[in-house]
């Protein structure tokens, strides 16, 4: 089962409702579809969503690093030799999204080759994940309307509110309006994408006391080491590391230095293999995890469900799985469905991300 060919196909699908947050705005899913072909006809699939304003990877850089750096070294390796595949990927630092997609595509190929669903190969804990929906920058009344609508339509009862890099009063008002309108049974947590200073984050925590917020994600730049440590010590709710912890090494550093006390795992930037290492670190140290979303399309969201449902610790909280609802279309042949606030894994060999070839032909850019 040798790797015979690797394809990196850039494509673009517009959003119907762009998502705006402290680091940028996503109006088009300008992603890269990755396909790993083996010499016995298996094709592993994954999606790479570049987030240039966060990690510096772009659609062009992901395509280039796969075509020019990784593929030439991976061709001829057996898909079962994951440690050798990872030795190749590890030699080049950064480029986490390109590496994550290659890793997921290899796992997908392995699952198909051995005839097992990947969620079972990874751990097989459960068959679905609860969905958390991300609310971007919009007037508070519109956010409430969106949350109520998503609750009604999909049964979603967990919402992550994007905050930061705008007047604090706007963020605080949005928290209040959501809590008043959604009632006490709905979970609300915040993600500032480094949009505050640590002291501003403390002020927001003070002014939202009593609103029952559950998590505070990436409030400020992790490089504000001392202030952030102080924030983590004083915060009544877990401070979640997200873009500060794309690798297992980053997770170790941030947890050990007190920069956060919970970790957001994103399969888009860690693949399944490094996500497994990260999860092991977190469970070993007794630290909560969340399954995050890199503004994924459906193929990426299915990968997140596959990993998240496979493990007990990642299934405890709702995973961020619903951004694809704001896209005008998608490549996944059999669309994801959110039923009773959950998305199910696929009980087919591999991850189960078959691509609609007509749609790929329509949206591909190369
Ligand atoms: C998040 O949790 O920060 C925004 C950019 C990105 O890479 O992920 C999203 C959501
Ligand atoms: Mg985040």
TrEMBL record:
Keyword DNA-binding: no
MF annotations from Gene Ontology: magnesium ion binding; racemase and epimerase activity
Residues of the Mandelate racemase/muconate lactonizing enzyme C-terminal domain: 140-238
Domain of life: Bacteria
Cofactor(s) it depends on: Mg(2+)
Keyword set, alphabetical order: Isomerase, Magnesium, Metal-binding
SMART domains: MR_MLE
Alphabetized InterPro entries for the sequence: Enolase-like_C_sf, Enolase-like_N, Enolase_C-like, Mandelate_racemase_C, Mandelate_racemase_N_dom, Muconate_cycloisomerase_anti
Biological process according to GO: peptide metabolic process
Family listed: Belongs to the mandelate racemase/muconate lactonizing enzyme family.
UniProt-recorded name of the protein: L-Ala-D/L-Glu epimerase
């Amino acid at each position: 089962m040798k790797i015979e060919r690797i394809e990196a196909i850039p494509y673009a699908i517009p959003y119907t409702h762009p998502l705006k947050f402290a680091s940028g705005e996503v109006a088009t899913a300008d992603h890269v579809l990755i396909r790993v072909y083996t010499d016995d006809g298996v094709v592993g699939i994954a999606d790479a969503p570049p987030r240039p304003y966060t990690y510096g990877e772009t659609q062009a850089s992901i395509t280039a690093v796969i075509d020019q750096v990784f593929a030439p070294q991976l061709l001829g390796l057996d898909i079962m030799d994951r440690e050798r595949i990872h030795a190749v990927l590890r030699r080049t630092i950064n480029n986490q999204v390109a590496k994550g997609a290659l890793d997921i595509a290899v796992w997908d190929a392995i699952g198909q080759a051995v005839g097992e669903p990947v969620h079972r190969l990874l751990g097989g804990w459960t068959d679905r994940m609860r969905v958390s929906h991300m609310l971007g920058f919009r007037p508070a009344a519109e956010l409430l309307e969106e949350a109520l609508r998503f609750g009604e339509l999909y049964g979603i009862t967990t919402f992550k509110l994007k905050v930061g890099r705008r007047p604090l009063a706007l963020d605080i008002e949005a928290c209040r309006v959501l809590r008043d309108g959604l009632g006490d049974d709905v979970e609300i947590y915040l993600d500032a994408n480094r949009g505050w200073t640590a002291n501003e984050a403390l002020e927001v925590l003070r002014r939202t006391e009593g609103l029952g917020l559950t998590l505070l994600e990436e409030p400020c730049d992790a490089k504000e080491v001392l202030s952030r440590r102080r924030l983590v010590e004083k915060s009544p709710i877990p401070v979640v590391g997200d873009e500060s912890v794309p690798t297992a090494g980053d997770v170790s550093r941030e947890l050990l230095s007190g920069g956060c006390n919970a970790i957001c795992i994103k399969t888009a930037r860690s693949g399944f293999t490094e996500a497994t290492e990260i999860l092991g670190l977190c469970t070993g140290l007794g630290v909560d995890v969340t399954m995050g979303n890199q503004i994924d399309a459906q193929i990426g969201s299915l990968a997140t469900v596959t990993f998240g449902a496979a493990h007990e610790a990642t299934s405890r909280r709702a995973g961020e799985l619903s951004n694809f609802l704001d896209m005008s279309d998608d490549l996944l042949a059999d669309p994801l469905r959110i039923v009773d606030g959950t998305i199910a894994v696929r009980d087919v060999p591999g991850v189960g991300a078959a691509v609609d070839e007509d749609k790929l032909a329509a949206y591909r850019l190369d």
